[in-house]
Each structure stands twice: as structure tokens, then as C-alpha cells.
């Protein structure tokens, strides 16, 4: 057995000492879990889920804390301090995460937040980070089709919209005309949908699925909402997209399609003041 450095591992408690417990790290030897992280009920022979990293003396050490990032992941982290060698990021553990100057796209400043990728440096065996995101994204064709739901991490703003990391592996673009909420920012994690995968591998994203099933589901949700609110609502076709999303968590496009669907079925009426009521 070998441990995964910079990730969570299930390890067995092999002995208790005054300052904590030692865990079986297999070929890496025994690993200390300091007393401050040891659950009261844990016993020798039991397994415990711990995160493994290196302490100030570069020794393997365990913690039950959950860091903001693991090896092989992307995240937006704040710079705690900077010295002549690089920047040190707060990743939720006692020892900060190092980013050398050569792995910074722009010179990092204390107090600012940056998107980084965490990995184990092959030469030093240390857990480090890089802000050069592109080199850690897959160049292989993405195995998605239009309509697939995916996990997104908003990466950076551009003139066209926002770049996003898809499923912790691919780069995608969320264009401005697909954004209907005001809280989009770098580091935000949310669900989205594949709009199109181009032949050159580029991925277009959307925050709202457009399938007929999705529309029918929301049409019934909208009808139930109107019924539960006295048979009428103030929202309508001309309402701001932000107000629609704040109420229903759907885009204005889906909302308008659902309104049209219910209107054609003569289940609602469109009021002169822009609202909607039951027919």
C-alpha cells in the first residue's frame, strides 16, 4: 500500500502516543495524526479518513481538516504572504501552499485571490501550485454531447464571457448571452450544460438545459407556483432576467417558453400590467 500525497486516504490506526496517533502508511511508514485532530472515539485497529501532506520539516503528516484544494484539483485561493522565492497561498491548513514565480502568470500579491492547480513536484516531492492553468487541462477530445449536465468551475472573465473548467479536466466557454445571473465570478462552482462541442475541441456551455422534458417540468412548476400564490404573479415576459432567476432558478428564455406553453394550453392569462394569472 502507498499513500496519495495531497489527497484524502483511509489509514489504520496502529498506535497511540501522548501527542496523537500513528497511522499505517504502508511503504511510507507510520504517519502521525496530531492529537488536536484525533477523534475521541478512535481506537487502535480502526480506519480513519485523513488528508496527507508535508509538515514544516517536510515529513508526512495527517489531518482531519478539509483543505480548499487537493492534488489534481483547481481552486481560487488567497495569497497569505510573498517572499523572494514566490507566493504562499492559504489552503486551509497550517502550512501554506507554495507557488514559485515561474508558475505565476502575473506577479501574485498578498491578499489577492488567484486560480491555481495543485500537484506534487517531481523533483522536490512537495505539494505545490501553479497559476498556469492551461497546461493542466486535457488536450484530448471531450466525451460530451449537447445537453449533458456537467460540473463547472468559473475560471476567468473575458470580453466574450467566462472561461470555465469542465469536470476538473476540460476548458469551456460560457458566453455573455448565456449568463442570466449576477453572481458569476472566478472560483464559483456550479452545474451547467454542454451546448456544443466543436470539431477543434472547444466547448460551448450554458447554465440552462433546453430539452423538451426540462421545459415541461418547469411549465408544471410555474403553474403550481401561480396556484400557490393566489392565482397570479407579478413576473412576466418583460421582467428582468435576474428577477426570474432569483425566483425560479431558470433563464428568461426557459421562463418565456413555459409561459407560452401554458398560454397555448389555456391554463394562464397574460395580464395588461405584465403579470400572469390563472385562466
What does this structure look like?
This protein is mostly beta strands and 279 residues long. The protein has 3 helices and 18 strands. The protein has helices at 212-228, 241-248, 252-264, and strands spanning 8-17, 20-24, 30-34, 47-54, 60-63, 74-82, 86-90, 97-100, 113-120, 127-130, 149-157, 161-166, 170-175, 189-197, 203-206, 232-233, 268-270, 276-278. The strands form 4 sheets. It has a 5-stranded antiparallel β-sheet, with no helix packed on it. Strands 8-7-6-9-10 form a 5-stranded antiparallel β-sheet, with no helix packed on it. A 5-stranded mixed beta barrel has the order 11-12-13-15-14. Strand 2 and strand 3 (30-34) form a beta hairpin. Helix 1 packs across helix 3 (252-264). The model has no long low-confidence stretch (mean pLDDT 91).
How would you concisely characterize the structure shown here?
The chain is built from three helices and 18 strands.
The helix count comes to 3
What is the SS-derived class? mainly beta
Proportion of β residues? 35-45%
Distance between the termini: 67 Å
Number of strands: 18
Mean pLDDT: 91
Low-pLDDT ranges: none
Major sheet: 5 strands, antiparallel
Q: How do the strands and helices of this protein lay out in sequence?
A:
Blueprint: E1 8-17, E2 20-24, E3 30-34, E4 47-54, E5 60-63, E6 74-82, E7 86-90, E8 97-100, E9 113-120, E10 127-130, E11 149-157, E12 161-166, E13 170-175, E14 189-197, E15 203-206, H1 212-228, E16 232-233, H2 241-248, H3 252-264, E17 268-270, E18 276-278
Parallel strand pairs: 13-15
Antiparallel strand pairs: 1-2, 1-4, 2-3, 4-5, 6-7, 6-9, 7-8, 9-10, 11-12, 11-14, 12-13, 14-15, 16-18, 17-18
Amino acid at each position: 500500500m502507498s499513500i496519495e500525497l495531497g489527497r484524502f486516504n483511509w489509514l489504520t490506526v496502529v498506535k497511540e502516543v501522548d501527542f496523537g496517533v500513528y497511522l499505517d502508511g504502508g511503504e511510507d511508514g507510520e504517519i502521525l495524526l496530531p492529537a488536536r485532530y484525533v477523534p475521541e472515539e478512535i481506537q487502535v485497529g480502526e480506519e480513519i479518513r485523513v488528508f496527507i501532506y508535508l509538515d514544516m520539516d517536510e515529513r508526512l503528516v495527517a489531518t482531519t481538516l478539509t483543505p480548499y484544494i487537493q492534488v489534481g484539483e483547481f481552486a481560487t485561493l488567497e495569497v497569505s504572504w510573498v517572499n523572494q522565492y514566490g507566493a504562499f497561498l492559504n489552503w486551509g491548513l497550517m502550512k501554506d501552499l507554495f507557488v514559485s514565480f515561474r508558475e505565476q502568470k502575473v506577479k501574485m500579491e498578498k491578499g489577492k485571490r488567484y486560480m491555481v492547480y495543485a500537484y506534487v513536484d517531481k523533483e522536490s516531492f512537495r505539494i505545490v501550485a501553479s497559476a498556469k492553468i492551461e497546461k493542466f487541462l486535457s488536450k484530448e477530445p471531450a466525451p460530451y454531447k449537447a445537453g449533458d449536465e456537467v460540473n463547472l468551475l468559473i475560471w476567468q472573465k473575458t470580453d466574450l464571457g467566462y472561461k470555465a473548467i469542465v469536470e476538473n479536466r476540460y476548458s469551456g466557454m460560457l458566453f455573455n448571452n448565456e449568463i442570466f445571473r449576477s453572481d458569476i465570478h472566478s472560483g464559483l462552482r456550479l452545474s451547467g450544460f454542454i451546448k456544443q462541442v466543436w470539431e477543434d475541441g472547444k466547448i460551448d456551455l450554458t447554465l440552462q438545459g433546453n430539452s423538451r422534458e426540462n421545459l415541461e417540468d418547469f411549465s408544471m412548476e410555474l403553474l403550481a407556483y401561480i396556484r400557490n400564490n393566489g392565482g397570479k404573479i407579478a413576473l412576466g415576459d418583460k421582467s428582468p432576467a435576474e428577477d426570474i432567476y432569483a425566483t425560479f432558478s431558470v433563464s428568461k428564455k426557459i421562463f418565456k417558453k413555459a409561459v407560452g406553453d401554458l398560454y397555448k394550453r389555456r391554463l394562464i392569462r397574460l395580464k395588461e400590467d405584465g403579470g400572469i394569472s390563472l385562466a
